[in-house]
Amino acid sequence: MWLFSGLRRNEIARLRVGCIRWQDGEEKPGSQPVCFLHVPVNKTL
């Protein structure tokens, strides 16, 4: 997650519970689900 989110270690530790949202791959049959990570705009909350 650190590599793709652009967050520092302490910013990852401060993420809120429930900041991850999964979306089923509904566009194509047999596609993998996608994980969305909600990151605050200023990343310091």
Q: Sheet bearing the most strands, described?
A: 2 strands, antiparallel
* Beta strands, count: 2
Low-confidence stretches: none
**Ends apart, CA distance between termini:** 18 Å
Q: Order of strands across the widest beta sheet? A: 1-2
Let me know the average pLDDT.
Answer: 77
Order of helical and strand elements: HHEE
Strand-residue fraction? 15-25%
Helix-strand category: alpha+beta
**Which term fits the overall shape?**
elongated
Give the helix level as a range of percent: 10-25%
Rounded Rg = 13 Å
Please count the helical segments.
Answer: 2
Keywords for this structure?
45 residues; alpha+beta; two-stranded antiparallel ribbon
Walk me through what this model shows.
This protein is α+β, with helices and mostly antiparallel strands. Helix content is 20%, strand content 18%. It has two helices and two strands. The chain has a two-stranded antiparallel sheet with strand order 1-2. It is elongated. The relative contact order is 0.27.
Tell me the layout of helices and strands.
Elements (H helix, E strand, L loop, with lengths): L1 H4 L3 H5 L6 E4 L10 E4 L8
Antiparallel strand pairs: 1-2
